[in-house]
Amino acid sequence: MFRLSPTAPLCLIAALGLSACEMDMTPPAGRQPIQNEAGILPAAQGVWHNGDYGWILEIGPAGITRWQDTPAGCYRTAQDGPTLMSQVEYRYVTPVSPDRAQFEYLPGDGHTIFDRLDALPGRCGARDLSGHAGTLDIFASIFQQHYAFFERRGVDWTARIDEARAGLADVESDADFFALLSAMIEPLGDSHTKLIAQFDGERHRAQYGLGETLPMIHAGMGETPWLIGIIDGLMNDVLDPGARHILNDRVIVGTIDGRIGYIQIFTMGGFDDTLEPGTPDWAAGELAALHTMLDEALTEFAGLDGVILDLSNNRGGYDAVTRAIASHFTTEAFDGYSVRTDWDGNPDITYRIEPAEGVRYSGPVTVLTSDVTVSAGEITTLMLRQLPHVTQAGQTTRGAFSTPLAKPLPNGWYVELANEIFADADGMVYEGIGLEPDWPLTVFDPADPVASHGAAVRAVAARMAAAN
Question: Does any domain span residue 105?
Fold first, then answer.
C-alpha cells in the first residue's frame, strides 16, 4: 500500500511511498492484472470486502468502485484525493480461494486480503453523510475502528468524540468544522495522522507530532536555507573531494579523511523523476537506481574503517527501498520486521531480508538518526540496528512507522491515520516512542542546526576511525 511521507522544500524532498515486499516484478502463479487489453478480468469482478482497512471494492466491466465501510455508514469515494495514496487503485489480483483474493497495487506489494460478498451491502449509499454531523460520525468511527495507538499515545478517544459532538452546535462554517476535527487528532501527536481539506478557496492541513527539530526550523531560519546549509557543509567542509550529490538530489556519497565511507539518504525513493509514480516501471526503476548506487559506493568503501549511513534528515518513502538498503549490509538472511493491524493478532506479514545479489558490506556501520528520521527512515534503522556490526548514533527517531491509512470523508475532505503495527524481530513496537540510539549525540542543535550536523558526522567518523 502507498505511503506518502512528510514533505519539505527543495527538489530533494518529494518522496513518494509505498509499502511493498522486496520487489519481484515477475508475477507468481495466480497473480494476474485486474485489467488488460480484453478488459476487466472476470475472476476479479464482484464485490470484495476487507475489514482491516474498511474497504469494499465493487468491480465490474467498467472498472473499480471503492466504498468506505464504517460502523457509522458506508459511502462511495473516488480515487482522486490530494496524496498519492488517495489516487492509485489496485492493479493485480491473486485468487486465494473462490471467495478470497489478495489485491495489490504493484507485483509483490503487500498482503491485503479481501473476501467476496454476494452483493453490495444495503447500507452502502443508504443515506447522505456529507453534512457536518454525518462527517463527524464517520470521522470518529474511522478512528475508533482503525487507529492502533490510542493507548500508546495516551488519548481517550471516546472523550474526544463526546467533546466534539458537544461542540458541533457552535460550528457555523467549514473553518469551524475543520478546527473541531483538528482538535480531535492534535493530542495524538502522530505525524502519520493528518486532515486535509479544501474550503474558502484554499487547501488546509492539520498535522501534528513533527518532533522538535522541524518546528524549530520552520519558526526560525526556514527549511530551504537549513537544508542548503547542511548540504553545502557536507560537500565543502566534511567530505573529501569527489563527493557526489546524486539520484535526483536524494543521496550524498563520499568519504571522510579517506577512512570512513559516507552515505546520506534524504528520502526512500524519488531517485528518478522521469517515471510515473506508483507504476510497476517506477517501482523497478527506484530499486534499480538504489542497488546501482549502493553497489558503486560499497565497492568504493571496501577496506575503509567503516561506513556512516546518515538518515538524520530522512523523511521516509517507499518501504521496498528500506529492505533493499538492509540487504546490502548483511551476509545472512534475517527477519527485518513484521506488520499487523491487531495488537492481539499474529503478524499479517514478516519481511525476511535476503542478502543483496550485488555488493554487500559487513564491516562497522553507524546509522545516524534524529527526530526528523521518520517512517521508512525509521524502518531502515529498525532493521539495521538488529545486526551485530551496526550501531545507531544521534538522537531518538520520530516514532511514526505505520503506513498511513487513507480515508476520504463523505464531505470531500481527506484523513490519514496510523493503523499498522510495525515490530522488530523480537516483537518490540516503537510507535510513539522512537528508536533510541546506542550512542546519544546531538545532531541538530537549536543554537546552530546547520553546523551541529557537520560536527556530529565528524564525531562519528572520528570514533569509528579510532575504533579500528
Answer: no
Please state the pTM of the whole predicted model: 0.90
Do 195 and 181 touch, CB atoms closer than 8 A? yes
For 27, 207, 212, the CA distances from 215, given in Å and listed in that order, are: 44, 12, 6
Query: What secondary structure does DSSP assign to 191-243, as a single string?
Result: TT-EEEEEETTEEEEEE---TTHHHHHHHTT-HHHHHHHHHHHIIIIISPTT-
Report pLDDT for 364.
Answer: 98
Containing 394, the helix (H) or strand (E) segment is strand 390-394
Q: How far apart are CA 139 and CA 156, in angstroms?
A: 15
> Which structural domain, as residue segments, surrounds residue 173?
132-207
The number of residues making up the chain comes to 468
Residues 249 and 383 in one domain: yes
Number of domains in the chain: 2
Is 435:207 a contact under the CB 8 Å cutoff? Answer: no
Please indicate whether residue 78 or residue 292 has the higher confidence score (pLDDT).
292
255 and 377 in a single domain? The answer is yes
Residue 415 lies in a domain: no
Measure the CA–CA gap between 72 and 60, rounded to whole angstroms.
26
Say whether both 264 and 361 belong to one domain: yes
Strand 365-369 and strand 349-353: the pairing is unpaired
Summarised one tens digit per residue, pLDDT across range 240-258 is: 999 999 999 999 999 999 9
Query: pLDDT for 128-185, tens place per residue?
Result: 999 999 999 999 999 999 999 999 999 999 999 999 999 999 999 999 999 999 999 9
- Cβ-count burial 392-401 (b if 16+ within 10 Å, e if not): bbbbbbbbbb
Taking the C-alpha atoms of residue 174 and residue 67, their distance in angstroms, rounded to an integer, is: 24
| 193-223 pLDDT per residue, tens | 999 999 999 999 999 999 999 999 999 999 9
Beta partners for residue 50, in sequence order: 55
